[in-house]
Fold this sequence. Notes:
- By secondary structure, this protein is mostly helical.
- It has helices at 8-12, 20-34, 47-65, 67-77.
- It has 4 helices and no strands.
Amino acid sequence: MTDARPDPYAILGVLPGASQAEINHAYRTLLRRHHPDTRIPQDKSQNGVADTTLQHVLAAYTMLRDPTQRADYDERARPRTHPPLRQPQQTLNHYDAHGQPPIIVGPVRWHRAPNPPSP
């Protein structure tokens, strides 16, 4: 038996990057749909399923409404992946296609021309 919990984002039908307003909206919509006071009275066969669904909705919302619990869940639920391997950098080729080194020019310095002699 696994102790894997259902995904609270999937229960509420929101994306993991959803804002708090989107989570609240999804929670209230599902609460109205599955609450015992708003169910159709003739449909008593679905009461057990609706009660279980309501419990899942309440548990999911309890976890996602608290920022610290949500961050903890996101950290645990995120698949552990290794950082991507860095590609080895190519060594710089200081020679062009003809095997000649490039022309290296230093900084340009401007010198004032000498004053021409006066006549």
